[in-house]
Amino acid sequence: MEHVKKYIDANKDRFLSELFELIRIPSISSIQDHKDDMLRTAELWKKFIIEAGADRAEVMPSEGNPVVYGEKIVDPNKPTVLVYGHYDVMPVDPIEAWESDPFKPEIRDGKIFARGADDDKGQAFMHAKAFELMVKTNTLPCNVKFMIEGEEEIGSPSLGNFCKKHKELLKADIILVSDTTMISTDIPSITTGLRGLAYMEVEVTGPNRDLHSGLYGGAVANPINVLSRMIAQLQDENFRITIPGFYDDVIEVMPAERAEMAKAPFDLDEYKKSLDIEEEEGEAGFSTMERTGIRPSLDVNGIWGGYIGEGAKTVIPSKAYAKISMRLVPNQDNKKIAQLFANYFESLAPKSVKVKVTELHGGYPYVSPTDMHAYQAAEKAYTATFGKKPIPVRSGGSIPIISTFEKILGLKSILMGFGLESDAIHSPNENYPLFNFYKGIETIPYFYKYFTEIMLA
Amino acid sequence: MEHVKKYIDANKDRFLSELFELIRIPSISSIQDHKDDMLRTAELWKKFIIEAGADRAEVMPSEGNPVVYGEKIVDPNKPTVLVYGHYDVMPVDPIEAWESDPFKPEIRDGKIFARGADDDKGQAFMHAKAFELMVKTNTLPCNVKFMIEGEEEIGSPSLGNFCKKHKELLKADIILVSDTTMISTDIPSITTGLRGLAYMEVEVTGPNRDLHSGLYGGAVANPINVLSRMIAQLQDENFRITIPGFYDDVIEVMPAERAEMAKAPFDLDEYKKSLDIEEEEGEAGFSTMERTGIRPSLDVNGIWGGYIGEGAKTVIPSKAYAKISMRLVPNQDNKKIAQLFANYFESLAPKSVKVKVTELHGGYPYVSPTDMHAYQAAEKAYTATFGKKPIPVRSGGSIPIISTFEKILGLKSILMGFGLESDAIHSPNENYPLFNFYKGIETIPYFYKYFTEIMLA
User: Fold this and answer.
1) pLDDT band at A72 (very low <50, low <70, confident <90, very high)
2) Dihedral pair phi/psi, residue B424, rounded to 5°
3) May I ask the CATH architecture of the domain A2-194+365-456?
4) Distance CA B439, CA B382 (A)
5) Do A281 and B199 touch (CB under 8 A)?
6) Bridge partners, residue B315, by sequence
7) Is pLDDT at B261 greater than 80 in this prediction?
8) DSSP percent split of chain A into helix, strand, coil, nearest 5
């Protein structure tokens, strides 16, 4: 496999400049103004896939942003890997916290700084380049399909129907995804579980107009005070979620399995130091890793109401809002949880206000077993390029579409993430180390090789 | 006094077009970008006072926005009325809730719609025009001084020192202010009490950067969830404020006095209907009017943190903020309350976050006795023009500078407010009925007449 490193070395600058082209388009899927940017990014992806050596590539319509599809079929009797990734990115606010323009990639300290540098332009693009490497060096051992969507960051609302419609086209043996993290480059790991998500928006309405807080203060319910009280009631003093029925479907992880998980390296002092917090906070009776790996959680992702400008304004606002999301663990159904949340939240509202609850998006949790062929191939691939056997870990994050794939396409996914938690995805100064970018491109061809060997054995 | 109505009738259109000139300048004191507008508004006020017939008028420097001073001394042995008002206005957001441009005054349904139409451009300008009326008709019975400031809406931070510096210049017998409301034009009333104010801003910091809510959710304190819990703890289930010592200095109003106050006309159903609320909410054991009139209150005036844009973003923000203000009643010291609040709020913070509390502004409560000469003169003036004796009422609002005047200048204020609660001051679609504007101009000369008569008697 010497050709792998050789090809990367010979082309590494071009790989980077092509990735930068992708990054420069602000393809923020949650903001309508970026519709044109979504199309431009999709077209650029199509061009890259074709140039890399695909037989065909298309920007295919969906009910939302288009999906880039591409394929190279070397032999119908060989296995087929379906690469999934997304070309859309998260919003950039708070923009003032960025040290450089989020859409003008910069290299500092050996890392690419930009929105999408990791999630998921950087990680998905590794697959385009690994594919190119295999094609150009005549080492592609199996069939490859690409499906790169533009709505992952808003919960992939159209991809389920896209998969239903194109089930035949998307036939494959495994879905290969790089959109997760590894523990570190010293301790490679493969994600074997993802949490599900139920993301809600709530609106609390008090009086029908903003009121002067002097003339009305003390006599009329203030929707911000009420919303704060309602949020406070969503968790108890042990940080357990109080929504009736919330934990009913949670499969408790057995003590033996928890003991096994506890062996993964984790330094709580280092963790607290890196976040500059004096104390961590979470559900009583569980460790920090368990709280994100095997337990559900509830976070207010945004809150707003009243006067939020400079100085003071003595107002009782008419409305207050919050975006509240819950991470779910295996066997919790996000649709059911969304309904339980809505019922409970409405029940918390005093008669002095009106409440509106909307489900913004959601997804099922996912588990990827370590005994499947693709996991074994991935394990061998990491071992070959990192020199260490990777550790299987449950991630706290969610990629809602992964469980949808399983349901609609009947396909498992292998989550070969090369990101680091320090990459600050979804945050200001998102970054992706060059080491990880190139290491990913290097590792992927090994996966194709081992996966094909195992499947044909 | 026939000349009063006559003069108003002959000049009413000009009065209005001059007021509109004032309103068109967006003199928002809480936003730094409007510094030039503050100066322009002050200069225009000076011009109007001179044209109305003052001996002198000046735009005088203060530590903040300038103060417009003007005077006409008819006889040093006659009483002196010091007119106080303010030329600054509140911010206009949420701007989308306005039916017309806040700085392009429009007349609809017999009301002037604009920011400052009532508070306090409309009400203060009545005094300029009443003064003009008395000068031009040779009926001014006493000396008049004007002091129109530009920082009332941010708590008059510079006017205290201005008063100290110009104590001699500001010598007078009474301060005359129109910056409050009356019950209705059918039930005229005079404000005899104002609540004090302590206005705070709080900042809650969790992790040192925005985090992905999947990777960290459940393990790290979310500053929005924490802030909500802390706000929820500021009041108990009876809506009493829980800050230790908060009520210590409150003078409980005696049952007999409360019974007297309860005679003021008030229709709770009408009140709820006008606000479109099913239930009112406030401190147990007190009526709605008592809750705003004789009891302190606590309101969150603004809250923000995390992602507040369109769609969903799965973030745990680093910081969350709130603006929280308390209305105070006689004998509560706003400085002491601000300190009690800060101590308590900080004590509520779990170790998982850091908290910063800042006092934005404040003011003492004020009581205006009904047995003072100015009250009696005002009572006679309203009776003359409205045909009904006005009712004394305690307002829930605050004009912090009024108690400062008493302390520094040794002067009581008489609060002849002609606004209505429906004027939506501080809110979108602020308005001021033309009837009240002209009725105010009509009533003020009567006050001067009766006040001079009583003082010289």
Assistant:
1) very high
2) 55, 45
3) 3-Layer(aba) Sandwich (3.40)
4) 10
5) no
6) B212
7) no
8) 35, 25, 40
| Cα–Cα distance, A355 to A345 (Å, whole number) | 8
H/E element holding B417?
Answer: none
Q: Does A300 touch chain B (CB under 8 A)?
A: yes
Evaluate if pTM is beyond 0.95: no
Q: Would you say B198 and B326 are in contact if contact means Cβ atoms under 8 Å apart?
A: yes
pLDDT of residue A185: 93
- N-term to C-term CA, chain B: 20
**In 3-state terms, what secondary structure has residue B326?**
strand
Q: Quick one: tokens of B404?
A: 């400062």
Per CB-CB distance under 8 Å, the chain B contacts of A323 are 306-308, 312-313
For residue A31, name the pLDDT band (cuts at 50, 70, 90). Answer: very high
CATH fold of B196-250+296-363 reads Alpha-Beta Plaits (3.30.70)
Question: Distance from A44 to chain B by nearest Cα, in Å?
Answer: 25
- For residue A263, is pLDDT > 90? no
Q: Do B221 and A279 touch (CB under 8 A)?
A: yes
| Helix H or strand E encompassing A226 | helix A223-232
Q: What are phi and psi of A242, to 5 degrees?
A: -95, 0
Q: What is the C-alpha separation between B80 and B374, in angstroms, rounded?
A: 12
Using CB atoms within 10 Å of the CB of residue B334, give its burial: 0 to 12 exposed, 13 to 18 middle, 19+ buried. Answer: buried
Q: Is B209 part of the contact surface with chain A (CB cutoff 8 Å)?
A: yes
Among residues B91, B230, B415, the alpha carbon closest in space to that of A210 is found at: B91
CB within 8 Å of chain B, chain A residues 280-299: 280-283, 288-289, 291-292, 295-299
ipTM for the assembly: 0.79
Contact residues for B19 (Cβ-Cβ < 8 A; gap 6+) = B105, B112, B121, B122, B125, B437
* Count of beta carbons in the 10 Å neighbourhood of residue B269: 7
Question: A141: which 2 tokens?
Answer: 């051992």
* Mean residue pLDDT across chain A: 95
Q: Where in chain A is the domain with CATH 3.40.630.10?
A: 2-194+365-456
- Cα B148 from Cα B108, distance rounded (Å): 28
Which residues lie across from A190 on neighbouring strands?
A: A392
| Distances in whole angstroms, Cα of residue A413 to Cα of each of A85, A174, A451 | 12, 6, 13
Query: Where in chain A do CATH 3.30.70.360 domains reside?
Result: 196-250+296-363
- For residue B236, list chain A residues with Cβ-Cβ distance below 8 A: none
Interhelix angle B434-456/B373-386, nearest 10 degrees: 130
Question: Is residue B307 within 8 Å of residue A301, measured between CB atoms?
Answer: yes
Rg of chain B taking only CA atoms, in angstroms: 23
* CA-closest candidate to residue A250, choices A201, A283, A299: A283
**Inter-chain CB proximity B221 and A281 less than 8 Å:** yes
Whether the per-residue pLDDT at B237 is higher than 80: the answer is yes
- Contact (Cβ atoms closer than 8 angstroms) between residue B206 and residue B321: no
pLDDT score recorded for residue B254: 86
Cβ-proximal residues to B170 (8 Å cutoff; 6+ apart), any chain = B82, B145, B147, B163, B409
With cut-offs at 50, 70 and 90, classify the pLDDT of residue A171: very high
Q: Cα–Cα distance between A413 and A83 in angstroms, integer? A: 9
Secondary structure of residue A130 in the 3-state scheme:
helix
- Secondary structure (3-state) at B355: strand
Q: How far apart are the C-alpha atoms of B263 and B218, rounded to whole Å?
A: 54
Contacts of B429 in chain A (CB under 8 A): 209
What is the spatial distance between Cα A13 and Cα A6, in angstroms, rounded to a whole number?
13
> Which two structure tokens, joined as six digits, stand for B410?
């040794």
Write out residues 163-192 of B within 8 Å (CB-CB) of A: 181
Q: Which is nearest to B88 in space by CA: B157, B140, B137?
A: B157
Structure tokens, B230:
């802390």
Token pair for B414:
């008489």
